[in-house]
Amino acid sequence: MAWTKYQLFLAGLMLTTGSINTLSAKWADMFSAPGCSGTPNHSFSHPFVQAVCMFLGELSCLAVFYILICHDRRRPAPTIEPGQSFNPLLFLPPAICDMAGTSIMYVALNMTSASSFQMLRGAVIIFTGLLSVAFLGRRLASSQWIGILITILGLVVVGLADFVSGNRDDSHKLSDVITGDLLIIMAQIIVSVQMVLEEKFIYKHNVHPLKAVGTEGFFGFVILTLLLIPMFYIPAGSFGSNPRQVLEDALDAFCQIGHKPLIVLALLGNTVSIAFFNFAGISVTKEISATTRMVLDSLRTLVIWAVSLALGWESFHGLQILGFLILLLGTALYNGLHKPLMARLPCWSTEQETETGDAGETERLLGAEKAAQES
Length: 375
Known about the structure:
The chain is mainly α. The chain has one domain (about 5-355). It is built from 15 helices and three strands. It has a two-stranded antiparallel ribbon with strand order 1-2. The protein starts with a helix and ends with a strand. It is a multi-pass membrane protein.
């Protein structure tokens, strides 16, 4: 069945804004400017400030939700279901997970390449699958277990590519690249916990997706903004890449922005793109399918890698291509993208289709992922 112009627009919007989200965050990391009190030029390394900007983008989804509701109520026959009332504090635990996972990923993005960052985020299906079995009582099909194993292999290949490139690339130290890769994978564990919490406690309340994203964005924005105050005084040693070597120096970030206003464009790109990416992702799931959303998310990795190469942010490594293809295969098997092809084979029985019946439910769980959405 051919896609409508609106569906093509949504797919293009999701692919474009999702790519801009990661690329703009990496672009901000690459700026160098003087800081406060005459400190010399240094890189814009402020992951927690960037995370605050991302949550501001998610928070804007809440405003969009209420605007859509108000506009819809003026119609003779409203079409938007606002969902049932609920306790907003239900969103606090997943919002804390989102905040922790996003912040760690922004720290890691400063240490490794944008393409490896996006590829390694594929580890989320491993931990989501395992946690859904342990805490949601879900049974995974054999193809999903195979997908998890293939994804692990893909992560090993991508990690090996980073290890090889770390020995030849002067833009990142080998120790930083390895640390960054490990932090990304650790962040996916936290993101998986977030998704399982959302599945267990939130989706049963029939909350509108935009309202869910916006409410989590509100908690993340408020909490992380307040945490910037103690972070200004907490020493981080060599881990703190700002001149004062504290966990986060928000004043230094504003001073650097004052010296180089172009940084605002990168931060604004991160904020606006995450809002449109969430809207497009939700709309693609509704208008087309969750499977299409996962395919577009995989294509986003390819776009980020190609743009990074074109801009000279990283050099070509064949192992990355191999790792990407293996990760793509693992993701496809886990999310049941092979079923339409297998269904055409004479040996494919309805019993096998039943065996993979839980894939759609798990796919819905994965479809709820934001940046992180995430980022």
